[in-house]
Amino acid sequence: MQLPDFPLGGGCQCGRVRYELMAPPLSVYACHCKDCQRFSGAAWSMSMPVRRETLRHLQGGLRAFDKPADSGRTVRMLACAVCGTNMWNEPLSSPDIFVVRAGTLDDIDWIEPVGNIWTQSRAAWVEIDPALINFPGQPPSREPLYEAWTHKTGAPRA
Ligand SMILES: [Zn+2]
Ligand SMILES: [Zn+2]
Prior knowledge:
Layout: E1 8-11, E2 18-21, E3 29-31, H1 34-40, E4 45-51, E5 55-59, E6 62-68, E7 74-80, E8 86-91, E9 97-101, E10 115-117, E11 133-134, H2 143-153
Parallel strand pairs: 3-10, 10-11
Antiparallel strand pairs: 1-2, 2-5, 3-4, 4-9, 6-7, 7-8, 8-9
Family: Belongs to the Gfa family.
Pfam families: GFA
Protein name: CENP-V/GFA domain-containing protein
């Protein structure tokens, strides 16, 4: 798979929030936890962990919501202050990464997920490809998801 050229842009629905991703993400995977189903309004959300220094918030006010995650850790979720689009979250337990909502990128052709997490709470009709890197709940570490992404895209190692 071919990675696009960086930086890449992304933003919210109303256009006030814009960001730039300066380097390839560490991985892209689907999350089927109940919280993701609620805030995305869909059966899963697409998570894209990135190194904090590679995400540049260019414009637009954000509002924060500190959410106790299913995993028991606290996650700070950042959304556009005006239109409410979920942009990224800051896992307070992982101070080196942001987890960007991958669907907010302008171009999503290249972000095919390498795996699934929280498959135990997926919708009954969702089929999980057993060839991907899958976890029934919160993965003990994101390493296998990073590794699969590096393998698939040739992105530099985390
Ligand atoms: Zn907005
Ligand atoms: Zn989730």
